[in-house]
Design goal:
- This protein has 7 helices and 7 strands.
- The chain is of the alpha/beta class and about 240 residues long.
- A 7-stranded mixed sheet has the order 3-2-1-4-5-7-6, sandwiched between helices.
- α1 packs parallel to α7.
- The longest helix has 14 residues.
- It is globular and about 50 Å long.
- It starts with a helix and ends with a strand.
């Protein structure tokens, strides 16, 4: 299957490397990062996603996560173990807060949005990437047990310790707008993006079906609500 997958990758998505979504999100973060900034990575974990390594690119990179490995995360200047609903930093400390594949795990997203708003400086931005609730991957995830997710991600090369339960309570553009409005954050942009069908690359027929779906949802703006990821930028109003 590896040979078939490689052939289809080169034929259908020659410009799409592995972890294309994290690479895309990295570009969005870099566009908002300055050397003088103090930055917070919400859900930093063990630092296994190399595209989220911004160490040395700004004044200070902090991170929070329930995963105790965050304290040894090599891409952070400081890591703290905590729930994102209670961030252990003072008010107006950060120029940029970002969250990569975190919103789908939040039990109380509005509280987390409020905490992000609290620790952001006036004019600071909150950037996030998260699965879209209405995409088939998230739909299947909501209908299947956590053990199934672990097996699928093991096939994709992720260990069980890096696969967490999902809730999808902040995973539509509408939900993001509601949580932002309730916590005083302005919506700058919400992109809905579909590219190479990562979870469908298990056989030739599923790959082709996934590629057909990708072309369908990218063919018209009417299909935007069914693209795979949301990439958003929120801003705390300046004084």
């Amino acid at each position: 299957m590896n040979a078939i997958r490689k052939f289809l990758d080169e034929k259908l998505y020659p410009d799409c490397a592995g972890n294309w979504d994290d690479t895309l999100f990295r570009e969005r973060i870099l566009a908002n990062l300055r050397p003088e900034h103090v930055v917070l990575d919400v859900g930093a974990g063990a630092g296994i996603v190399q595209q989220m390594n911004f160490k040395g690119m700004s004044q200070r990179i902090c991170g929070v996560d329930l995963d105790p490995r965050v304290v040894d995360n090599p891409v952070l200047d400081e890591g703290r173990v905590c729930d994102a609903a209670s961030i252990p930093y003072g008010d107006a400390m950060f120029d940029v807060v970002f969250a990569d594949n975190v919103l789908e795990h939040l039990a109380a997203p509005q509280i987390v949005f409020g905490e992000v708003a609290r620790v952001l400086k006036p004019g600071g931005v909150f950037l996030f990437k998260t699965p879209n609730k209405w995409h088939y991957v998230a739909t299947i995830a909501r209908m299947t047990p956590h053990g199934f997710h672990e097996r699928i991600n093991r096939w994709r090369g992720r260990v069980a310790a890096d696969v967490f339960p999902t809730l999808y309570r902040a995973n539509t553009a509408g939900a993001v707008r509601r949580h932002a409005a309730a916590t005083g954050l302005e919506v700058v942009s919400i992109e809905r993006i579909e590219r190479r069908p990562e979870y469908m690359r298990i056989s030739a027929p599923t790959y082709v079906a996934g590629a057909f779906y990708e072309r369908l949802v990218n063919s018209t703006s009417l299909m935007e609500p069914f693209r795979v990821i949301l990439v958003g930028k929120l801003r705390k109003p300046a004084r």
